[in-house]
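Read as chain and fold; for instance:
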Amino acid sequence: MGMFLNPLVPAAAYKKIASSRFFVDKSRLLEEIIQSMDDNQKYICITRPRRFGKTVMANMIGAFFGKGADSRDVFSGLRIAESKFFEKHLNQHDVIYIDFSRVSKNCSSYCEYIERIQDGLYGDLAAAYPALDADSEEALWDTFQKIFDRTGKSFVFILDEWDALFHLPFVSEKEKQEYLLFLKNLFKDQIYAELVYMTGVLPITKYSSGSELNMFLEYDMATKIKYSEYFGFLDCEVDTLYRTYRETTPQPKITREDLHSWYDGYHTAAGLRIYNPRSVVCALTDNQLANYWTSSGPYDEIFYYIRGNIDAVRDDMALMTAGERTASRIRSYAAASMELKTREEIFSAMVVYGLLTYEDGYVFIPNKELMSQFQELLMTKDSLGYVHRLAAASEKMLQATLSGDTETMARILSYAHDTESPILSYNSEAELSAVVNLVYLAARDKYRVEREDRAGKGFVDFIFYPERKDEDGIILELKVDASPEEAVQQIIDKKYLLRFKGRLGEKRKFTGRILAVGISYDRKTKVHACKVEEL
């Protein structure tokens, strides 16, 4: 047991997670990794956004393979215990576990950063193999080779956050290349490396244009099917967690639908829908829905990606914040660039960092948690031009609606129509719908806004469900080349009001008013009209 050789940390960390209330068993990943090792596919790189369980899985792998601690009590109750590989590999390997996000005290140079790792490895190997007479002056890979030659022992390498160095401000471009060469020499074609399992956010393809790291098979969320189910929570897993939450939480305040709308929506290449695992666990633990997406620097702040090329993405931002999808190609390598020059590069980077998700050629905002990030951006960044101005007017639009001030409502909509944006041409209800989303942006702080929701005898355009039961609810129907009265009548005729009532015989869910709102646009006269009626 040492700093990097068979450390206790992975086993201790994973045991703590496995004994927690909201634990999800993903141990079948171990079986797939063992099979890859047997197939001589020993170089594996998993890239995922932050907060998607990469470190938990790295700790699991270290705890299972490593000799540092007996972890039978942890794994014997998990799914991997049913595998034919269980006894053969449980705690039977020498593991080198390196968390590249950790630095020495007051580290201010690449030399200090890499020397901490090299010196720690030399010290661990010298302690484990005292007869070897390890020489820190020789190359680290030569020391590992010497151990293999004399003892026949190989190692499982686990490298968590391999790309952390690329975020360090004191590392130069030349030193980044030195780091890649260090990894290449340590691992490529080395017989002593039984497995090299690497995780990170950044795609290795950006940096491996030559032969540095091309031995790795890289598995990302957007384009690779394998390992999709192990990073993030599946729907069935959240079902189980929710049952635990209901059984163990006094006065639970979160519904199952809440978890879906707030934290679901990420898509994998395998066609799976994935929940943000950290956010789900935080919400259930706190018994509170909230935005748990915490910023960790410029790489995952939304405005960083769009600030240099606002014109190229502004209309798409408006559409996506309105709940629409926008077509885009994904180039994962773009995420590593600090100079995002094209629309595709910007959206590709945002997918890699989990700010958007990707499916069938389209990018979009996955859930309410991320939608709130985008809404805050639109409300605060005046450099977004007309999109910002529409969002800023949304508080007035909501107040005008609640007070029945249809003249103000029509004036705000006319202002939206008079902007320079090509998406606001109002040739269809879809375009009108996008604008309505923007002009009611502020409502999302107080309402759960659903689009195309099943209600009564049809699908209503918008329903605004108040967070508080004593607040007013809103049912909103849109019409192009028709009257707002017709829109309100459709709300009545198709019994959309039923969405605000419980099952037959139950007390009504909401005690506030229910407002039917009709909004229309005449393409010939370019006139907006609105009607608000209490149901």
Observations:
- The two ends are 71 Å apart (CA to CA).
- The first strand starts at residue 43 and ends at 47.
- Residues 110-128 form the longest helix (19 residues).
- The chain is about 40% helix and 15% strand.
